[in-house]
Amino acid sequence: MASPKPYRVAVVWRGDRDMRRAATPQNNRFHRIFEELSALGIGAEPAVYDDEIAGEVREQLLAVDGVLVWVDPIHDGKTRAVLDAMLRDVGRRGPWVSAHPDVILKMGVKEVLHRTKHLGWGTDTHLYRTQYDFNEAFPSRLRSAGPRVLKQNRGNDGQGVWKVELVSAEAGELTIVRVLQALRGSVPEDMPLRSFISRCKAYFADGGCIVDQPFQPRLPEGMIRCYMSGDKVAGFGHQLIKALIPPPPEGPDSPAAQSGPRIMHGPDAAQFGMLREKMEGEWTPQMREVLGLDEAALPIIWDADFLYGPRTASGEDTYVLCEINVSSCFAIPDEAPAAIARLALERLKAHAESPRR
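Below the sequence we write its predicted structure tokens.
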């Protein structure tokens, strides 16, 4: 009896035509993922993507069983609009796609912070869907609730994420705020509140929105990135970030202004044991219910970024969700490529057996 045909997977990341021609499973940052897929008998091939060669990439993806995608929502002015339309079409025609664009629109946007604010990872989170709502509600909230962090719905690398705090609380045009964007190299800027509100108008384009959360004072203690493969923790990363922290006198490009290295830990790291229990046992299942996602829809790799919240009365840490990354979750802990490969094989088998194909 003939052995079953091995599954084939395409790994997608952004590049250009020359990079596409030169790509091999060994000469890119995803080489460990290629190795782990191969170890399980999955044939994996590079699929370097650019909008100009979308048709060529589409034909490649239609010839495989599964598609794993690592493409940021914004990169050098480029968006995922063309790619997402193509991935939806590919997914309808047969191959399994992770993360699917429809799942990204539920999980990988800042609106999820508002939709899940009642979960244990939530905080005092508000949502503005229109410029009018923002104009009307944000000034009074800023005056009453202290420094806030505003986030555009889709973005990466700190683009459209702002710390806003009052400098003077006079009414109308005399209200002055100090704003600092999370984008690397940013410096604080004082301006009239109304001018800043006008600057944010672009975030409402194309159905966009703004999410509003309180600034977390323990930010200098670092961010904990919880890496998930499906509904299981695949590892952790702890990093002393500098985003939303004013640069030192030496300036935003000085060594002292740069974030520290992200220290990776495996899924069994003792210091994050409680966070793992919460993510696997409570928060991920609760998030799935809120968003209407079954377990099989969860991305093959995603992460939840947490800041330390207020300590409990007994001195224990709490965690506040500040972002979920789905579009392009990388770099990852050493243990994650094997977890990705194992889950990919499970998903490929289930997809092949699905009557919906």
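The chain has a mean pLDDT of 94.
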